[in-house]
Design a protein that fits this description.
The protein is α/β, with parallel strands linked by helices and 395 residues long. The protein folds into two domains: 323 residues, Thiolase/Chalcone synthase (Peroxisomal Thiolase, Chain A, domain 1); 49 residues. It contains twelve helices and 13 strands. A five-stranded mixed beta sheet has the order 1-7-6-4-5, with helices on both faces. It has a four-stranded mixed beta sheet with strand order 8-13-12-11, sandwiched between helices. Helix 4 links the parallel strand 4 and strand 5. Helix 8 runs parallel beside helix 9. Bound molecules: oxa(dethia)-CoA.
């Protein structure tokens, strides 16, 4: 049975990242490929954004399938069974469905039977919002293990005839496992903010209750991203340094204490401007934008994964995560890395059993769906028979 009450964790526990993983689609679209679609050039895109290529979801690939791959890798690193998860959060603006939440689909696909699950929509700040919420639930003593995913298939809501937006976005997913434990370090502080007066600056106009889907909305391309790039750019260059300073001061730290900044990957010029404003060298700001483009809520966890893989993160390092996006929203978080790296690779046999378990979980989910249909059918037969019996008796 899902949703069993979880064991209470000590109040005030710190949330530590103990697992991480990422996934991108195989298909790569470079700037030259894009210049065949719209009036643009490799030179313009590189100079104005820093993007060289992006990954694009193939047939059958969705936000869920990318989330699942990233989450499985994160669980593998954490050496954790999905049944030990208490919470699954998926930050996304491109869920598989408006409802049910992609987090519920992920919970089912993982076999995380004891986990609560919900999606979180905070634009490109979504992942840090999710981490912050999960860390607070851990600190309140509610949960021990939380899976937080940032995942997008932005290619599905991109207008491929609009050169102002289509050159920017890419698809991917990143995931982390947060664990409650009493050790020092982990997530130290976070700052979350929003200013809904900027709603029109970055918006998917139709498909919600304000403008339900219709032939007209489809014709008017209202189901694809619309953005005022210049305004978002100005907002980003102001809010990233502001939020970073605020979160550092909240943690009692200074910019000099930060080993690495892992920012939302939107535009290299935004990152350069943030570096200037904060007075730090650009080498302390991690960027993988050239290879993935802007993957919205997936960009920070993907960058974190790659920074770890490239040995840029060491025990006791202070990391600063910072993002901004649709809403408008912004988020910043400071953490002290508490895990020795590299983590030991789990034994092969364990991986084999885990894979077998995922197959079993898949079959079980199919069986449950099948049984629900049979159950509904049987119920209908009994209901009809009861109706006939009552009518026969003249009740
Ligand atoms: O995750 C948050 C999401 N969004 C962002 O972070 C986006 C933030 N904004 C940006 O990154 C930048 O504003 C853009 C990359 C979107 C645009 O760069 P820009 O330097 O602000 O360019 P612009 O919008 O001021 O446009 C300059 C020129 C325009 O031509 P005119 O009017 O000067 O003749 C555009 O039509 O560049 C033109 N242009 C392009 N040219 C070639 C716009 N897009 C393209 C393109 N290829 N793809």
């Amino acid at each position: 049975m899902n949703g069993l009450a979880t064991e209470k964790v000590a109040n005030g526990s710190r949330a530590h990242i103990v697992g991480w993983g990422m996934a991108v689609p195989e298909r790569v679209l470079d700037n030259h490929g894009l210049s065949a679609l719209v009036d643009t050039s490799d030179e313009w895109i590189r100079q104005r954004t820093g993007i060289v290529e992006r990954h694009i979801a193939g047939d059958g690939e969705t936000t869920l399938s990318l989330s699942l791959r990233a989450a499985q890798s994160a669980l593998e690193v954490a050496n954790l069974d999905p049944a030990q998860l208490d919470l699954v959060v998926v930050a996304t603006v491109t869920p598989d469905y408006a409802f049910p939440a992609t987090a519920c689909l992920l919970q089912d696909a993982l076999g995380a039977e004891h986990a609560a699950a919900f999606d979180l929509s905070a634009g490109c700040s979504g992942f840090v919002y999710g981490l912050s919420v999960a860390a607070d639930l851990i600190a309140a003593g509610n949960y021990r293990h939380c899976l937080v995913v940032g995942a997008e298939t932005l290619s599905r809501i991109t207008d491929w005839s609009d050169r102002n937006t289509c050159v920017l976005f890419g698809d991917g997913a990143g995931a982390v496992i947060l664990e409650a434990n009493g050790a020092s370090g982990g997530i130290l502080s976070s700052v979350l903010g929003a200013d809904g007066s900027g709603k029109d600056l970055l918006i998917l106009p139709a498909g919600g209750s304000a403008q339900p889907a219709s032939a007209e909305t489809v014709q008017a391309r209202q189901h694809t991203v619309q953005m005022d790039g210049r305004q978002v750019f100005r907002f980003a260059t102001r809010i990233m340094p502001d939020a970073s300073r605020q979160v550092l001061s909240q943690a009692g730290l200074a910019v000099e204490d930060v080993s690495l900044i892992i920012p939302h990957q939107a535009n290299d010029r935004i990152l350069q401007s943030a570096a200037r404003s904060l007075g730090i060298e650009e080498t302390r700001i991690y960027s993988n934008l050239s290879r993935y483009g802007n993957t919205s809520s997936a960009s920070i966890p993907m960058a974190l994964c790659e920074a770890i893989e490239q040995d840029l993160v060491k025990r006791d390092d202070i990391l600063l995560l910072t993002g901004f996006g649709a809403g408008l929203t912004w988020a910043a978080m400071v953490l002290r890395w508490s895990l020795p790296l590299p983590v030991p690779v789990p034994p092969r046999r364990m991986t084999f059993w885990r894979n077998l378990r995922y197959r079993w979980v898949q079959l079980r989910s199919r069986w449950r769906r099948f049984w629900r249909r049979v159950d509904a059918h049987l119920f209908q037969i009994l209901y009809d028979a009861e109706g006939r019996r009552k009518r026969g008796k003249g009740d």
